[in-house]
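Page 42, continued from yesterday. The earlier attempt failed because a stray header line got pasted into the input along with the sequence. Redoing it now with the clean sequence only.
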Amino acid sequence: MANISIKKGTIIYKEGAAVTTVSRIVSGAVKMICACGEIALEKDDVLGAVDLQKMTHSCTYVATEDTVLSTHIFKSQMELPAFLAENEALTTALLRSSVKQICSALDEEVFFQYECNNMYSYLSESYEEYKKLCNKYAVPVKALPGLLEVEAFHAEDDIPDWLGVYYEESTDMLSGPAANAFFQYPNLNTGYLLRFCEDFHKVLKACSEMVEYRSELAFLLMNKNGMDLFDLYTNLLFRIMRDGIDTISLSAAISTILIHIESIPSFNKELYQKRVQEYKETLAGIEDELASGVTSSASLNGSSLENSLDTILTYAKCSEETSLSFKRAISAYKKHVDKSASTDELRTLRREITSLFYEIYTMAFQASTNDKNIPTILKMFLKFGYVDEELAGAENAAYLYSIADSYTGNKKYHVYTIFDWLNEIKQGNKEPRRNEFDVDYAGYVHEMKTSGRIDANKEKEMLADTNEKVLFEIKNMFTLANKMTSGRIATFTPVFSEHTVLSSLESILATPEKIAASLIQIQKFDYSAFYRDALFYDASLPIPKENIKRKILPDVILMPNIGNRGVMWQELEGKSRSTPACYILPTFCQEELLLLLLRITGEYRWEICRRTQGARWNDLSDPSLTSEYFDYVQFYRKNSELSPDAKEKVKTALTKARNSFKEMFINDYLIWVIYEGKGSPRMNKVARRILFTYCPFPQAVREQLKSNPLYGEIMEKWQVKRAQENHRLSNILKRLENSGIEIPKELQAQQAFLNM
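This time it went through. Structure tokens are written below.
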């Protein structure tokens, strides 16, 4: 036991550090910072009491005054009875302080529960009110992304109601005359303290879950993407202001949203101020327009977009029946203010529009293949799914018109609009992607022959017919991927509609340059992501077959929709391992493009390994990314390298991934690149070792991390293995040089790869 003096502001114990001592406050004050908030500790309170069982600090303790502590060495939970018997004075303080701490935590937990319920109710009610206002003013209802996925809060482990009463009565007992008798029983005290630790951590876990839950709700109120409740209300306000409608009640609702955001202590103040300033500036601009009698408009000359649907139907040479059916369906769809409603009428209407859309799209595309001067409106239809100026909204239609002629893919970056991609297939430069049953075009045609639907001559003819290939692509990959990337599976329609526009189209347009820049950014942390195993052999060289890495970037196809999901459609084409993967994205990405591509790349990492390993993809006797990760997740409970806390986190992560090992790996991959690659450890040692082995950081990042002890051992082993590979290849290259043989470019590239 020793007394130590601590200056105000000093961190005494930090969350995550090992428990080696417990300390009683002799004088001064300390704040205990944890997921439950801040708990004030004063004279005779004990620091570290809550972690006598886990032996790792779950809280941070900071001196709020100059403080004197009496510290006691504490080695393990097993020694707790002896520790209490040897320190009778400390036992009294320890028991009383532990009860005080959990009572404070339970009070906070109740408050957190109230806050969560209150925020959830407010969000749900405010969105319902927004929909009513849209109906009132005949404005298309826009979705609030993420709201449908959020439910009222329920803790994984409910805190029983009696627990608070139990510890309140414990407070009375420990401060009353019965306490002296209680303190005389070390084993009883041990059991009580261990039960307290267990209960405190249940409360801590519940509070942590509620902190995360409140963050999710706060994101729906306001976020940097602008797809939030604040944006829905302000955009509605701006729209009806121009129509001369009274906006007092709507302005009041916006003020209430801001009050709720201001009440969240952890909310990003810079983001809040920026969004409020943008709102005020836009509001002032509209007020100036109205005062001057001049309103700005992004709409085009009336004749440019007038009767767009008729133009499209005429160009596609649709039958009168198809044209009338589609026009009736679009007219009926436009009349629905809430186009995402789940009524039977709308479900039937959406199905009809979807079926007719792809029929018309096929005919319009076929007509465009022989047209060197495709009308701009047709390009809007083929690239963006645009069909009607009213349905799209005047400003949106104007923007689409302004970019339709210039917006295209870029073969240099392997990026294609769906229109470009279908043209590549039509010209014989690309093959159709596999369908939803994982059958490619050749397999599909062969299946038709074996089932007797076509003969051998027709099979041969179809295999060479690029028109049939285009039809296969539209009926399979295009129709399914278009729906998947939209993120609106239940309410999807392929036509461009204003109600799906939640942000400025210009800001969310996925261009080839943005996609290429995002893929480069990913490779700055996972440089080997797009390298495949290949075999180099040249009979004229005096060397055996050599395993090398070959870089193969994915093809990226852009669907004509506004969406928030990316899809890894296939990791390669056919049996050839030298063919590119296929990534599919929405043309207008309402999620951050880098995150979408990062998630797809994580899935690609998993699937290309599975394809390469074949039946042995989860066989640990043949080490690979999938086999090692599969073994890690399957047997984490028995893994002696993982602490109890780490095992609990693996269990939680697996539950969040819906027990999908692949989904859990993708989530870990995101953490690996976003956090671990920037020196912010978030993973356990086993997962970190697997990711470092198969998705290593480039040299620049490794240099920054080499001083971090968490990476020391795994980095050293990896570098030894890499040095051996480099040494062996260097000897081969030296032998070729000494023989006067020019070094093949494939081997030069392999040496460069080994030095990355």
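Notes: DSSP finds 29 helices and 14 strands in the chain.
Reminder to self: strip header lines before submitting.
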